Amino acid sequence: xxxxxxxxxxxxxxxxxxxxxxxxxxxxxxxxxxxxxxxxxxxxxxxxxxxxxxxxxxxxxxxxxxxxxxxxxxxxxxxxxxxxxxxxxxxxxxxxxxxxxxxxxxxxxxxxxxxxxxxxxxxxxxxxxxxxxxxxx
Length: 137
What we know:
It is a single chain. The chain is mainly alpha-helical. The protein has 8 helices and no strands. The N and C termini lie far apart (about 30 Å). About 35% of the residues are buried. The mean pLDDT is about 90.
């Protein structure tokens, strides 16, 4: 439900769904990772970079192969001008997904379900963060 709420342009409604999902299934790493990841995207779209980063960090800890968690952390690091950390997170992404590019991540991370106009400012910040982090176009 959290991903649906986000797709409908309601990031403020995501947290309660993700908390419930984590309470119902706290032991399956992939489930935890994706729940944390969706919670992180919602926080990012609400402009809460620190909270988003923590969710992405937890997602990456639960599933180290979840490239999107590292990519979003790199974007936040880029926005926050943490160059060394952005580079480290991008290296992690490129180890998992060598063809990652700003344009490719658009297609993979923003399917039609997440194109709600209310999410546009967050999308713009995400791509600016990836550029600042040094991800190729």
